[in-house]
């Protein structure tokens, strides 16, 4: 497929996990990609991977902290300077935060998680929507979570941030559909990424793989999802094939959110 020939796709959290997988997927279909992450080394690895697999692909890397609005404004401006437009935006950067009961959840940790996952996503939406409204077209995919549509224990900050992002997605889709812009969200469940591995290591650093296998047993499919499976959904939602999907939150969780 070549759904993204002559298209520009901007991706935050592109240094690893879902962001890296999505960048590789859209680049393989012809996209010019603007890669954003706060970790310069991981960004360089993503760029190297994409350029090795897709000779001739046009890439831009921008080191930025999405929780800082000035840096968000910068990554949007840098993308426009390099490519002249933004056709698709995978608003993906996020952190899980420490795990704890709500009564013991540190306020500083809560503010940090909200600042990246919700406020940072809001900044990205604001600045990219302005561009897309002037263009008269665009597609945005936010990374929410099953934790944004149901409760998950010991993750107050994460769950609150993702519930908020679901609300922003639906609201923005309603507002901007009239301008030819779609705003949707994905709600991944247990996807094996570095962030999920880090979460499992918080529980038991020596036996995290065993904990992981126990973790996925309640899932109807009895396994972790793969980042590439999520990337395929993101690519679809950013493509013209999903032209009448708007203000939707699409679970990709093996049926986890529907089981109970």
Contiguous uncertain segments of 5+ residues: none
Helix content: 40-55%
Give the topology string: H per helix, E per strand: EHEHEHEHEHEHHHE
**What is the CATH architecture annotation?**
3-Layer(aba) Sandwich
Which CATH class? Alpha Beta
Strand order of the largest sheet: 3-2-1-4-5-6-7
Overall, the morphology is globular
Rg value: 17 Å
Strand content: 5-15%
- DSSP summary, beta strand count: 7
Largest sheet: 7 strands, parallel
- Name the quaternary structure: single chain
Organism: Nocardioides marmoribigeumensis
Protein name: NAD(P)-dependent dehydrogenase (Short-subunit alcohol dehydrogenase family)
Domain Ketoreductase: 7-211
Family: Belongs to the short-chain dehydrogenases/reductases (SDR) family.
């Amino acid at each position: 497929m070549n759904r993204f020939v002559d298209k520009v796709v901007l991706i935050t959290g592109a240094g690893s996990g879902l962001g890296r997988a999505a960048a590789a997927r859209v680049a393989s279909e012809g996209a010019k990609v603007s890669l954003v992450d706060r970790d310069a080394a991981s960004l360089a690895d993503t760029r190297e991977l994409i350029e090795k697999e897709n000779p001739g692909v046009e890439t831009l890397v921008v080191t930025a902290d999405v929780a800082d609005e000035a840096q968000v404004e910068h990554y949007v401006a840098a993308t426009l300077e390099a490519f002249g437009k933004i056709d698709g935006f995978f608003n993906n950067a996020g952190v899980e935060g420490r795990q704890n009961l709500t009564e013991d959840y540190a306020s500083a940790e809560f503010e940090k998680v909200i600042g990246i996952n919700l406020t940072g996503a809001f900044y990205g939406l604001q600045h990219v929507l302005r561009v897309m409204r002037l263009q008269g077209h665009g597609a945005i995919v936010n990374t929410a979570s099953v934790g944004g549509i149901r409760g998950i224990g010991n993750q107050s900050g994460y769950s609150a941030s993702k519930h908020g992002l679901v609300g922003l997605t639906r609201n923005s889709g309603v507002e901007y559909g009239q301008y030819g812009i779609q705003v949707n969200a994905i709600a991944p469940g247990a996807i094996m990424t570095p962030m999920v591995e880090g979460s499992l290591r918080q529980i038991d650093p020596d036996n995290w793989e065993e904990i992981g296998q126990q973790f996925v047993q309640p899932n109807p499919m009895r396994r972790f999802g793969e980042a590439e499976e999520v990337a395929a959904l993101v690519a679809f939602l950013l493509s013209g094939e999903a032209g009448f999907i708007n203000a939707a939150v699409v679970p990709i969780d093996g049926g986890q959110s529907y089981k109970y």
